[in-house]
Amino acid sequence: MKLARRIQEVAPFYVMDVVRAAREQEAQWQRQGRNMIHLSVGEPDFSAPEPVVQAGIAALREGRSGYTLAPGLPALREAIAAHYQAKHGVPVDPRRVFITAGASGALTLACLLLVEPGDEVLMPDPTYPCNKNFVAAAGGIPRLLPTTAATRFQPTAAQIDAAWGPATRGVLLASPSNPTGTSIAPDELARIAAVVRKRGGFLLVDEIYLELGFDPAYGRTALALDDTVISINSFSKYFQMTGWRLGWMVVPEDLVEPLTRLAGNLYICPSSPAQHAALACFAPETLAEAERRRAEFARRRDVIVPALEVLGLDVPVLPDGAFYVWVDCSRYSRDSWDFCFDVMRETGVVLVPGKDFATIQPERWFRLSYANSVENLREAADRLGAYLRPRERQADPARRAMADEPLA
Question: Could you tell me which residue ranges the Aminotransferase class I/classII large domain spans (predicted)?
Fold first, then answer.
């Protein structure tokens, strides 16, 4: 059967190759009484807070499972708007809040709404791989801007301004970022927004990890800049509702009507039981639990990052949010793909090679997700240490030379 040409522009999601291989190995290891430690997929190891679960059960029992309006439950849109005011001091009209089928649904809708075939959308390298594919699926061209540790693996306003060309339509950023866990400083984000306004483009900011921030220097929503920014968010990360597939976006007022029309035609509405459950996310007891879990993620970061550095696995930028570490393994290997698969086979520690996220020196990097217990993180560090000790870079001059190259 002949496929649409756009599918040729959608790259594979290589992390799933890792997941499949890990599942196959895990079945063998379990028969041997051995366990694997999964530090790969970006999914919290916490489930949805109990008030959310109970609200979802109640919605189903009471028959609140019919269609909603395409933009979502009015009460949930109002609760999200109130959260922006209470948490960030940013007033948001509930009309501008649009409930979606996860953040992925929001990004898909945004790209279909704003990107014409042939339009370029600027984004950082490294980046979450699906962000490229949302643009490509709309017929656009993702244009990756190389970043370095010096800019926290985030693009700068000057870089975006210089890269803007006749085909550029807008910018897609993530703060904090997957895979690096790093944010854009508020002043720099304001400068980026000014460049985009000057150029007449759009600014999409993926903020699904915004509430999982650990550094008060960051954590300011892009909606504080002006009413033209489009913010994408999700119930999956901070509220740990991953499989419920519920997200939201906040859009400029003039996008509300066309977005309603597009979403109503493409998927009618988001899951109504999930929306009723999500209302409980903003109850005081749920927010208190979410904050406790955020502190636990910070504790895990502070366990695993020093452990990696002791092992000679360099972390050039301390992540300030999310639950990822972007790690340089060039001291031990010329190819992070081979490194990660060998580590998995030998130690049972599952990591993700840089191939999914970066086009600049992807063989140098891997991503570690610390959405796992402190005990498992310590055990993973011990296993990595036992694996790496016989492979010290002094035994291989070629690897030593690679590790001494400038960081991308």
Answer: 35-384
Rg (CA), the chain: 21
- Measure the CA dihedral 136/170/218/304, to 10°: 20
Do 281 and 239 contact (CB within 8 A), yes or no? yes
3-state helix, strand, coil in the chain (%, to 5): 50, 15, 35
Domains observed in the chain: 5-46+286-403 (3.90.1150.10), 50-283 (3.40.640.10)
Residue 316 and residue 299: Cα distance in Å, rounded?
19
pLDDT digits (tens, 9 = 90+) for 97-106: 999 999 999 9
Tokens coding 23: 């599942």
- Strand ranges (DSSP E) for 179-268? 202-206, 230-234, 247-250
Does the structure show a pLDDT above 80 at 178? yes
pTM surpassing 0.70? yes
**Cα dist. 404→119, 338, 366, 407 in Å?**
38, 20, 17, 8
Helices (H), 326-395: 336-347, 374-388
What pLDDT score was predicted for residue 4?
84
d(CA 154, CA 151): 6
- For the chain, how many helices (H) and strands (E)? 13, 12
Task: Give the β-pairing of 247-250 and 230-234.
Answer: antiparallel
**Where residue 5 falls among pLDDT bands split at 50, 70, 90?**
confident
Say whether pLDDT at 226 is over 70.
yes
The SS3 call for residue 114 is helix
Cα separation, 393 vs 332, whole angstroms:
6
The rounded distance, in Å, linking the Cα atoms of 301 and 213 is 11
Q: What is the DSSP string of 127-179?
A: --HHHHHHHHHTT-EEEEEE--GGGTT---HHHHHHH--TTEEEEEEESS-TT
pLDDT band at 17 (very low <50, low <70, confident <90, very high): confident
Tokens at residue 322, please? Answer: 């999310």
